[in-house]
Each structure stands twice: as structure tokens, then as C-alpha cells.
Design goal:
Chain lengths: ~475, ~500
């Protein structure tokens, strides 16, 4: 008789957003000498009150739209209290569980040789909080540096849907790419801009989830992740077979011995005493604001990718003159005027343009899809030689498989990351399907569009996934070269 | 000089009968002579001298305001650069803050002069001003009694006529109750009128700064200058700026020619007599009602929900917020720490430095927030608070104001054993629900009773709807005009 095990992993990733401001105080941040950039709030001078920088909320909504979460209109802040010299106030202000964004998903593609598959990884929530200070140990003394504290920290919590090491790596890679793409942060792990915790639990196949879970905290690199999970699985199976007790605990990683060590036993050892922060107000989102955001994003995308190289230059030229750029945004709002201007640009395919344009929903992704098709042809037309070259060389099936087999040893390198816009397109099928048939999500902004009663052409959504990659090839190469 | 109001002092300064420096010298001398009462913690002579010369220059340039050159006094939990701001605690002994609070900064910019900081209970916790570290404050009228309230020092300073007005803070009647015991007027505006930036926090959803003076007109003039939107406090209102003295001397319905308060309706509930009130308080309260009826007001009977529970709900919320607000005083940054090991040191330090009253609240507050059983209390008290907010709005459709007594008992001795008992359970019953809902209110003195050869002051409390301070000031003005029980001869 053979035992078969299964693991389920949930990842909680922390991202420090790249910005010059702090959340609850107006001081600017530069990396200088220790304790140089501090306002009264970070030291915890008595009598001072937190004031939220609304600048960050505009930025965070972008990420929520990209990961396609449910947007909750109300949120507020909590105090998480514990005694530690990291925070001089002895409580941390977080948005825990009462955040804007919940229930999103992110798509990954794993290519085993014989069995390659797509998978949706469910994301529970995205929330932000205050960062803590730094403790430096020197000569048996501890020094405090509050320079970092007060800067914004973003947490992305996934469901325990991940069932593999490779999937977890792919998930983090995809997430990193999105964060870089939106100018949130460079995600350099060595400097602590991106770090993640892992919750792991092992159980028999076809059985329910166990009660315990094992936390692995503050991981900084992929190699550590690869090693520690392998070690933990072996350790757990060893205990399982020999009849030991497995209890929930948190563990750290020792890189020299390549093994993990116990930090503390129980999960709820500290009572964090969450309660509402009465100094700060409740946050409410407007639907109008989100709608305006969508238009902005759309225009931004449009300039970056879908226009020709010639036109792109012109629009970038516009950006420097801001007034004209705002005019462009307004054109996005009044789409009919937008439509007439496009006639002027492209007279050839006008019929196609008309027929589709009035039928499609004006959701953000639908518009993206449409323009993606529409300008793709022109893009090929202009740079025909380049594309033909690529098709002959890379896109034949034989070569595609060969490439995979060649890199079979390290799946990490061969694993084929699906980049941003491809995710959009593929996910769109699931996405629309959910929003049409789920009546509980009335608050969502997509239903705001659906109320106009415009139906969809599903034929548009049939896509060759393979062809879409090469538009972003430049971006791919850049991304791979970093690692 | 000592009996004059702000406007009278202002006219003297305007006509240059006194310079500002002489005026501040006069009040300083009075403060020094009355050091027996122990109401001051810190006086900065150099600061007074410099500021009074500055505001003298303002008079020469004809760029003065109503408040230029007029001295005032502040409670010790308001932070200032030039003074030690301890908030009556051992931990913040000799603490100089790096910034000014907005409330003091606004008064400073107008030219008013801070004379010093007054005594208070440790972190505003407690009903009698018995500070074990800085000494207790004596009552101004009868030195055997306690001065009451957390902001006792600033109310004693006004009632002894050491100063024309002073500033205190209110969480659960800690500004109105000493106002009653020392026979002065005190006004607590709605939550969010005045910015709390620079006030050392007790419980941030209940706390609100207020004004103490002998006359309601002084309070209105100062409230004009202090109140307003502040960027640094996110709970302040963003309203249009209004004049709080605009209704003074007018009828309730402005177009009518009948009695002054014709059309006004005052709400009273039977629930306030549930506790065994003193006979003197009760008879005085009925006398006050007859005064309002004489002016033309009609009286309505109302019943309240949860009026008996509110005091304990207040106790839950305030103690739980106090435990998180005071967690920053752990001896690492504030106060020096003898104990070198980290984990033991916080426990020891906090054990030795806090008062017993504070420690009781910290234990309860931590229990309520942490345990699963205790958390029910916290959440349910929040729910009832939301319910009461809606419920009181219905009540204020029928009546314009609610009149209550301030405390149900007569004043108590300083070293009495009752002190412990009353401070927790019994004495806050009428004052806490105002802070619980964030309503505006004021305390008005309304007579004396002679008992055991001691003259004991009496008073009542007015509670209005949100943002109706100007109407409260109108009522108080008319009442004080007829009955000069407070320090009279202050009328302009």
C-alpha cells in the first residue's frame, strides 16, 4: 500500500511601494542617515494625530482593477497593538479585513512536458498598512532606526489554492511583474522591497484539510523558498510516518544548514487586540471616481501599446504639454466624439469599426480587447518582416516543444510566464461570466456598465494565445535579464 | 480689575489706560499670592515677558484684536513648546514637546498670553483632582472640599479670579463638574468643533477641548477664535465659519414680539430622578425650570432608552481606548528606564509610574479588547452607541434642549472614602451621555445652599443638538442676566 500526500500553500506577500511620501504624515522620504527623515508621528510624540495621504488610494485602486477584485466601497483602519520597540506607539495602523479589495484572481500557466495547464489562483484580499522601524544589533546592543517606519506597505493574501512549489514561484513572478508594470515598486528582494510568508500544510490525498498549518516567515529569495519547502515536506512526511505530533507553529530558515528551526509554537500567542482607530475617518469610494480611473487607465494603455510607433511619438509629445493630454482624457469620456476622430484616422476599416463599437460593453477590458484586435493588424502590417520572421522561427509547434524539453531540468527557467495583457484576455471569459450571473455583486463597478443593457460578442474572445506573446517581447527580455 | 470681563479689559487696553505688561504683572502677582490652592504646575516668566512686549507693539501699530494682551491659562495636557507639558503624570515629567498645539497656536497668533499650565488628574482619569505626584487642588470656595473633575486646576484659577478665562478638556464631564463645584461657567462644544491636535489623548472618540470662564459671553468670544477646520485633525468639521454671539439679546423666534423664549421647548425626563437626588439640588432644579417658564418656554417630558447603562458603556469604551493610547509610554522613548532587559522592563516601568486609577482602567481595557468574552462588551457598546445616535435625533425633533442636573450628590471632601466609590460608578451619570454622543453642553451656576456653615454652589446643565452652540449661548446669557448667582458685575 502506498501513501499519497498533497500539500496546500498560501502566500502572503508584502510589498513596499516606491514613493516619496509617508502615509500618515506629510514628510518626504529619502534614504539617508539613520533617523534623519522622521516626523513627530513616527516617534510617537504624545498628542499627535494621523492624517491619511489620499494620494495612495488613487494608486492602490489601480492594482485592484488589475487583479480584478470585488471593490468594496467602505473601509476603515484598525489598531494592531503589541509591545515591541519597532513601533514607538506600540500599535500599528492597518486595514486588516476591512479593505477595498477582496476576492480577486490571478492566472498562471505551468508547462510540464506532458501535462501543461492554466490555473486560477484565488486572491483573498489586498490591504495596506504602516511599515515598522528597523532594529540593528551591534556588539550586544540594539539600535533603532525609525527612518523606514510610516512608509506604506502593501499586503496581498492568497488562498491556499497553490499545490506546488513551481506554482508558488509562478504566482510570485506574475505578481512581481504586475507590480513593476504599474510603477508600484521594483520588487528587488535583496533590499527588502518584496518579501513573503508561506503557510503550508500536508495531508493525505482525498482527505480534508488538517487543523494545523506551518508558517514560514520573511523569505527573501526564490532559492530559500525552493529549499525550505522541500525540507518542510520531508520533515512532515517523516513525522507523519513515524507517528509524531504535528502542531501549528512558525518557523524560520537557516541558510547554512539548509534547514528550518522553530520560533514559537502557537499561532495566536499574541493577542493583537484589533479595534477601530477613532482618530481616522471612514473611507468611502465613489463609483464616478472609479469610472474616471478606468478611462485614464485605458488611455494610458492605449498610448503604450496599441498605437503605432509613429502615433505613439505624437501622443508622448502631447503628454509633455499637459493641457492637450487632459483634452485627450476628456475625449475618452465622451466616446462619441472619440469615435469621429477615429474615423479620421482610419478610414479603411470603418465598417468593421461601426458594427462592433455599438454592440460592445464599454468596460475597460472589453475596450482593450477590441483595440487589441483592431490595431494588431496594423501593427503587423507596418512591421511585417519582423513578424514573419518570428512566426517562421519560433511559432511552429515543433520548436515550441523543443524549447520546453531543452529546459526541462530547471522548470523554474522554462516555466512560461503569462504576462499582463494575456491574462486580461484569457481571464475575461471567466470574468464576464461571473459578473453576469452573480447577483450578489451589485456594488461592483462593472454592473454599473452592465445596467446599460448592451450585450457582448463572444466570438471576439476566441484568441490564439500563442501569437499574443510577441508584442511584449521587449518587456519579457528585459524582465528575464534582471534575474 | 479682577472682576472685569474680556471686553472691558479690551477697552482699557484700547484706550491705553493700561499697558499689556502691567496687566500681565497684575495677574501674575495674584497667581503667586494664591499658591496655596496648588492649581499651577508650570509658569514661564520669560515667555510672559516676551509675549506681552510683542502684544504691546501690536497696540502701537493698531493691528490688534479683541484677544490681544489678554492672559489665559491652559490645562496641562495641551502641548506647547515653551512649557513643560506633563498631563499630570510622573512619566512626562519635564517633557518639552517639539511642536505647538493648534488651539494654543491660534490664541498666540491673536496676541493672547499664556500665563502657565494648570494642575489636573493624571492623564485626565479621575473625578477629584487628587494628583499623588503634584499634589491635590483645593476647592476655591471651601478648602475642605475637592475641586472636582480632571480639569480642576483651570476652573479654580478662574473662580479665584486669577485669570479671565482658561481652557480645559472634557471626557465624561471632566470640564462641567469642576465648573459646578467652583461656581463658574464651562462650555463643551460638539465633538469636532475644536481640533484635538496637540492634546495628549485620553480616549480619542470622547475627548473634546472646552472653555471655562465666569461669563458665557467670554466663552462665546473665545470659541469664535478657536473653532474651525484643521488639516492635522481629521475629525474636525469643514463648515462655514459662524459667529457664536449672533443670537445674544434676541428672541427665540426673532420676528415675534412676545416673551423672549416664546416657542422654545425644553425636554426633561423622569429618569433623572431615579437616583436619590439631594433635596437641595432637586428644589434648585425646579426653581430653574420656573425661571425658564417665566421667560416663555414650554416644558416637555421625555423618556430615554439605556440611560442607566450609558455610564458603564462609557466606562468600557474609554478604558479600552485609554489602554491603546497610553501604550506608547513604555519607558523607551519617554521617561528613562532603569531596567536594562527589555521584556521585563516595560512591565516594571509601567507598574511603578502609573497611578492606581489609571492602572485599574488599563487592566479592564486590555481585558475587554483581548479576550473573546470581553470583546462582546466592546462591540455591543459600539452598537448601542449607534442606536442612541439615531434615537436622540428623534428626541430633538420634539424639544430643542434637554436640561439635567450635573451631579446627583453634594460636593465631597478631599480625603473621603466615598471618593473611590463615587468616582467610578455613581457620579458621572448625567455628564457621560453627552460625550458618548458628542453633543454640545454647558454648565451654569444657579444658586447657593448653606449647610453646616458652608456655602455650597449649585448648578444645572444644558444639552443641545449638534452644532447648536450659538443657541446654548443665547439661553445661558438670558438666564445669567436675570439670576446673578455667578460672579456678577461682569455685564457690558
Amino acid at each position: 500500500m502506498s501513501l499519497k500526500f498533497k500539500i496546500s500553500i498560501g502566500i502572503e506577500s508584502h510589498v513596499r511601494i516606491f514613493s516619496n511620501k509617508k502615509i500618515f504624515s506629510n514628510i518626504k522620504v529619502f534614504n539617508n542617515i539613520a533617523n534623519n527623515n522622521i516626523s513627530c508621528f513616527e516617534i510617537g510624540v504624545p498628542g499627535i494625530l494621523p492624517v491619511l495621504n489620499l494620494f495612495f488610494i488613487n494608486k492602490i485602486i489601480l492594482l485592484g482593477l488589475f487583479i480584478k477584485t470585488d471593490i468594496y466601497n467602505i473601509s476603515f483602519f484598525l489598531r494592531k497593538s503589541y509591545f515591541y520597540p519597532d513601533i514607538s506607539k506600540n500599535y500599528q495602523i492597518t486595514q486588516n479585513n476591512f479593505c477595498f479589495f477582496k476576492n480577486g484572481y490571478l492566472l498562471i500557466y505551468n508547462n510540464y512536458v506532458n501535462y501543461s495547464y492554466y490555473k486560477l489562483i484565488y486572491i483573498r484580499q489586498i490591504h495596506f498598512e504602516e511599515d515598522t522601524g528597523k532594529i540593528i544589533y551591534k556588539n550586544k546592543k540594539s539600535f533603532l532606526d525609525y527612518n523606514r517606519s510610516g512608509s506604506i506597505l502593501l499586503e496581498i493574501v492568497s488562498f491556499h489554492n497553490i499545490s506546488n512549489i513551481y506554482e508558488s514561484i509562478l504566482y510570485i513572478k506574475n505578481l512581481q511583474y504586475i507590480l513593476y508594470f504599474l510603477n508600484f515598486s521594483k520588487c528587488i528582494m535583496e533590499e527588502g522591497e518584496f518579501r513573503f510568508d508561506i503557510n503550508l500544510s500536508l495531508y493525505e490525498l482525498y482527505s480534508f484539510l488538517p487543523n494545523y498549518k506551518i508558517e514560514l516567515k520573511n523569505l527573501n529569495s526564490f532559492r530559500f523558498l525552493f529549499d525550505i519547502i522541500n525540507y518542510e515536506i520531508k520533515r512532515l512526511i517523516y513525522i507523519y510516518i513515524n507517528g509524531g505530533l504535528i502542531f501549528s507553529q512558525t518557523r524560520g530558515y537557516n541558510s547554512l544548514l539548509n534547514s528550518s528551526f522553530l520560533i514559537r509554537n502557537k499561532e495566536n500567542f499574541y493577542d493583537y487586540k484589533y479595534h477601530i482607530d477613532p482618530d481616522l475617518f471612514y473611507l468611502l469610494l465613489d463609483k464616478k471616481k472609479i469610472f474616471l480611473f478606468l478611462i485614464k487607465i485605458f488611455n494610458w494603455f492605449y498610448i503604450l501599446f496599441f498605437l503605432n510607433s509613429r502615433i505613439r511619438k505624437i501622443f508622448f509629445y502631447f503628454i509633455y504639454f499637459k493641457k492637450i493630454f487632459y483634452l485627450f482624457l476628456i475625449l475618452g469620456f465622451y466616446y462619441k466624439i472619440f469615435f469621429y476622430i477615429f474615423n479620421w484616422f482610419f478610414k479603411k476599416n470603418l465598417l468593421l469599426f461601426k458594427n462592433i463599437f455599438f454592440k460592445i460593453i464599454f468596460s475597460f477590458e472589453q475596450i482593450l480587447l477590441f483595440f487589441y484586435f483592431y490595431f494588431y493588424k496594423n501593427y503587423v502590417f507596418l512591421e511585417k518582416k519582423f513578424f514573419f520572421f518570428l512566426k517562421k522561427k519560433f511559432l511552429t509547434n515543433n520548436y515550441f516543444y523543443k524549447l520546453l524539453i531543452h529546459n526541462n531540468k530547471n522548470v523554474f527557467n522554462s516555466s512560461y510566464i503569462i504576462y499582463n495583457l494575456n491574462i486580461f484576455i484569457i481571464n475575461n471569459l471567466f470574468f464576464l461570466h461571473d459578473y453576469i450571473y452573480n447577483k450578489n455583486l451589485l456594488n461592483n463597478m462593472i454592473l454599473f456598465f452592465l445596467n446599460k443593457k448592451i450585450f457582448i460578442d463572444f466570438d471576439l474572445l476566441k484568441i490564439n494565445y500563442k501569437n499574443k506573446v510577441f508584442i511584449f517581447r521587449e518587456m519579457d527580455e528585459w524582465f528575464k535579464s534582471r534575474n | 480689575m479682577k472682576n472685569k470681563s474680556i471686553l472691558e479689559l479690551h477697552f482699557l487696553l484700547k484706550k491705553k489706560k493700561i499697558s499689556v505688561l502691567d496687566l500681565s504683572k497684575y495677574f501674575l502677582k495674584r497667581i503667586e499670592n494664591n499658591s496655596f490652592f496648588n492649581c499651577f504646575l508650570d509658569i514661564n516668566y520669560r515667555n510672559i515677558f516676551v509675549n506681552s512686549l510683542k502684544s504691546d507693539n501690536l497696540f502701537k501699530r493698531n493691528t490688534f484684536n479683541i484677544l490681544t494682551g489678554i492672559p489665559f491659562v491652559c490645562k496641562d495636557n495641551f502641548v506647547n513648546k515653551n512649557f513643560f507639558s506633563t498631563s499630570g503624570s510622573k512619566i512626562l515629567k519635564k517633557f518639552l514637546s517639539p511642536y505647538d498645539s493648534t488651539l494654543i497656536k491660534k490664541l498666540k497668533n491673536l496676541g493672547a498670553i499664556i500665563m502657565g499650565k494648570t494642575n489636573m488628574d493624571e492623564f485626565c482619569v479621575g473625578n477629584s483632582n487628587c494628583n499623588y505626584f503634584y499634589g491635590s487642588v483645593k476647592n476655591s470656595l471651601n478648602t475642605i472640599f475637592s475641586s472636582g473633575g480632571s480639569s480642576g486646576g483651570s476652573s479654580v484659577a478662574v473662580s479665584l479670579k486669577l485669570i479671565p478665562f482658561s481652557i480645559g478638556s472634557d471626557t465624561g464631564g471632566s470640564l462641567r463638574q469642576p465648573g459646578l463645584l467652583n461656581n463658574v461657567v464651562s462650555l463643551k462644544p460638539t465633538y469636532g468643533r475644536i481640533s484635538r491636535y496637540g492634546m495628549i489623548l485620553y480616549s480619542s472618540s470622547l475627548d473634546q477641548p472646552g472653555i471655562i470662564s465666569t461669563n458665557i459671553l467670554n466663552c462665546a468670544l473665545i470659541l469664535n477664535s478657536i473653532s474651525g477646520f484643521d488639516l492635522k485633525d481629521s475629525n474636525t468639521f469643514f463648515f462655514k465659519k459662524e459667529d457664536y454671539t449672533r443670537y445674544i439679546g434676541k428672541n427665540w423666534i426673532i420676528s415675534s414680539f412676545s416673551k423672549k423664549f416664546f416657542g422654545l421647548s425644553i425636554g426633561i425626563s423622569r429618569d433623572f430622578y431615579f437616583f436619590d437626588l439631594d433635596y437641595d439640588l432637586r428644589s434648585n432644579f425646579e426653581f430653574v425650570l420656573s425661571q425658564f417658564e417665566f421667560l416663555g418656554a414650554s416644558i416637555i417630558y421625555i423618556s430615554f432608552n439605556f440611560i442607566y447603562i450609558i455610564d458603564s458603556l462609557y466606562y468600557i469604551i474609554s478604558s479600552s481606548e485609554l489602554s491603546s493610547n497610553l501604550s506608547r509610554f513604555d519607558g523607551i522613548v519617554y521617561g528613562y528606564n532603569k531596567f536594562l532587559k527589555f521584556y521585563n522592563s516595560i512591565e516594571k516601568y509601567r507598574f511603578f509610574c502609573f497611578n492606581n486609577y489609571v492602572k485599574d482602567k488599563l487592566y479592564i481595557g486590555n481585558y475587554i479588547l483581548s479576550s473573546k468574552i470581553g470583546r462582546k462588551f466592546f462591540l455591543n457598546s459600539k452598537k448601542i452607541r449607534k442606536f442612541l445616535l439615531d434615537d436622540f435625533q428623534v428626541k430633538f425633533n420634539f424639544c430643542d434642549f434637554i436640561l439635567t442636573p450635573v451631579i446627583p450628590v453634594s460636593p465631597w471632601y478631599i480625603f473621603d472614602k466615598r471618593n473611590n466609590f463615587f468616582s467610578k460608578i455613581y457620579i458621572d451619570i448625567y455628564t457621560t451621555f453627552v460625550n458618548f454622543l458628542g453633543l454640545p453642553s454647558a454648565n451654569i451656576p444657579s444658586g447657593f445652599v448653606i449647610k453646616y456653615n458652608l456655602s455650597i454652589p449649585l448648578g444645572f446643565q444644558i444639552v443641545g443638538n449638534y452644532c447648536k452652540e450659538s443657541r446654548i449661548i443665547q439661553l445661558c446669557y438670558e438666564f445669567q442676566k436675570i439670576n446673578k448667582f455667578g460672579f456678577n458685575s461682569l455685564w457690558v
